[in-house]
Every structure is written in structure tokens, then in C-alpha cells.
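Lab notebook page, bench 4
Experiment: in silico fold of construct C2
Operator: M.H.
Input chain length: 182 residues
Purpose: comparison with the prior construct
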Amino acid sequence: MSKSTVRTAKAEANATQKQQRHRVLDLFSGIGGFSVALRSVADTVGYCEMDPHCLAVLNSRMADGRIDTAPVFNDVRALSAGTVSRLRPDMVVGGFPCQDISSSGQRAGLDGSKSSLFFEIVRLLRSVRSVQHVLLENSPFIRTMGLPRVRAALKEAGFAHVAYGYFTAVFKTSMGHLPILL
């Protein structure tokens, strides 16, 4: 095989890999954890975050190249389906607010003022047809504080195969081992 044939095959493989990359809209972006984790398989086409401290980290990570440079929207409630459609995401990720779901929160579930922002994700999913995949994160207490509603809303938005789970990690601390649900 000649060097030019090898180069052509590598270029074709790179082009195919580039075509297969996901286009991600990162809602409730925080400091960009989902975008960092998905960097090897996806390009982030937009972020949505309103916390000023998180925004500072997002902007810093974009500036130093650790996450993709993309528009940052500050309020999911004001994010229009038209704006999202122009970004052409095929995946939406996000860790919607858990303050109304977690054990240390108000325990209002998805009816709470913060955790009800989940339904803004659903609003966008219903309107933006390019989205094929959704990856969400929340407190493990979602299982008893709204998971059936989350699954029903995602199914109604056209996402019939909804899987869920949680992970446990144990961290060694100065006070001993601390179990953490992730």
C-alpha cells in the first residue's frame, strides 16, 4: 500500500468519524461537565447557564479549549425552539435543578419552582425535531420525587426508550470513607 493510499484512507476515516460526531446542546450547563465528558464523541453547539460563577468557568474553559466554543444562553425559559433548531443538535444533555428533589431540598418534586425547569427541556424536545438523544442527570431522589412523570413526559415528547440508573462511588476522606451517589 502506497503512502498516498494510507493518507487517503486515514483522511476518509477521519471524515467519517467527524460526520458521526454528535451535536450537543448542553442545558443547565454548570461548569460544562457533560461537554467535557462527551468531548471525544460530540461537539457542543450551545450552552445554557445563568449562574455567574458557572458562567465564568464555562467562558474560561472555552477560552483555553477544554470545551467547544459555542453560544451561551442564560435562561432556558427564554430559549426559543427556533434558536435551538438553528443549532441543529442531535443530543440534549443537562442536569436540571435538583433543589426541589434532593433530600436536603424543599421536597416539592417536579412541582417546585426550580426542579420544574425540567419541563423546559421537554418543551424544547417537542419542538426541535433534530434531537435524537437525551441524557439527563439529577439527584437519586428523583426515583421517589418524580421519575414516573419524567419518563412519561419524555415518552410524550417522542423518546420511547427511557433508561435510568444511578451510580455509587466511595471517596476516601480524612474522616473515613464517604459513600456518594452519582
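Observations: Residues 3-19 form the longest helix (17 residues). Residues 36 and 66 are 7 Å apart (CA to CA).
Next step: discuss at group meeting.
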